[in-house]
Amino acid sequence: MIPYLLLPLIAGLLTFLSKSATQHFSAARSTESKPVVIASPGRFTPWDWLALAALITFSGARYMVGTDFAMYYRRFLALNPASWADELAVSPQEVGYTALSLAIRSFTDEPALLFWIIAVLTVTPVYIVLHRFSQNLPLAILLYILLAQYLIPLNLVRQGVAISFVFFAVAFLSSSKWKFFLGATIAILFHASAILILAVMIFSRDVRPTAKKIGVLVAIATLGAIAVLQIDFFAQMASLLNPRYETYLVENRAGLGTYFVIGAKLALALVVVWIINRTSHVERFSFFMPLSVAFLILGTASIPLARLEYYFGIFAALVIPNVLSRLRNPAPLTLAICLASSAFFVFWLLNYGGLLPYRWE
């Protein structure tokens, strides 16, 4: 577990140094006519590149870590790059992932390269968004790791890529349409579930979360979970996205760990609502936090539905630091959230399969 515990410390330190360098540049610019450029606000500093490299390396260098690793390892070796059409036709995975695997397989038989590229695709979009839009990058990166969003692609390779690019697409929707369409396209090519999620996010990204709305969402999700247990209709609908999803709905139910995660994320959503009420400032994407709770509740009836929560849960790393920045004295609450998130991180490592021990080749 030690490598996992060192990672947030290293990433947090490097992003803190990046923030300090940027602030130093801003201060110098206000006092000197020709300042020495250490770091321009909005641009990556050397510390950012080091932090990004550390996060990519930890994910990309792993070996037999994560429940899906062995399956993707074997399927990569079984691919025949001489017959793309046949492989794409019979592959149970989405076309984006299969095409990427075939492209890599065309010039190497080493599966490690696939996992390095997946690491780049999952970490880089998230870092770009947090660097661009977060009011507190070190805290945002810490929460990205400690709330286990960084760990999810270690177990869910294809969906991990889709989550990162949905995050990228929706974050840039208002400021850059081409970035939105690029991110959305890549996400859909890697996981069909991204289609539904993008539609929900586009229409809910500016909704103000309130305690009443959270209560309504919880009630609706609870009724939805009961309805999912009447499986025939929902299994047929899931099969339209991917035939394998029908089997998932029938065979999988969430365990006790999901209830713990529901409680933790519900508490965070209520904290965000409290801050919004206190500061009278509505942070964009904050409604995604109660939506993540709703999908977790649905997930008590079906694990695939619980996995849809990850698309919404990643926005906590962006929303929480930004709403905290509105408080006059955010330090006590920030410390409390960091401590609680650290406990959540350890719980996740101990209870979600295939992450321990960390190994590399």
Structure write-up:
By secondary structure, the chain is an all-alpha fold. It has 2 domains: 1-203, no CATH class; 206-327, no CATH class. It is 73% helix and 0% strand. The protein is built from 20 helices and no strands. The protein has helices at 2-31, 46-60, 69-78, 84-90, 95-105, 112-133, 137-146, 152-155, 157-171, 177-190, 194-204, 211-228, 231-241, 243-251, 256-279, 288-299, 303-307, 309-313, 316-324, 331-351. Helix 6 (112-133) packs parallel to helix 9 (157-171). The radius of gyration is 21 Å and the shape is globular. It starts with a helix and ends in a 10-residue tail after the last helix. Mean pLDDT is 88; it is low at 33-41.
What labels describe this entry?
361 residues; 2 domains; mainly alpha; 20 helices; 73% helix; single chain
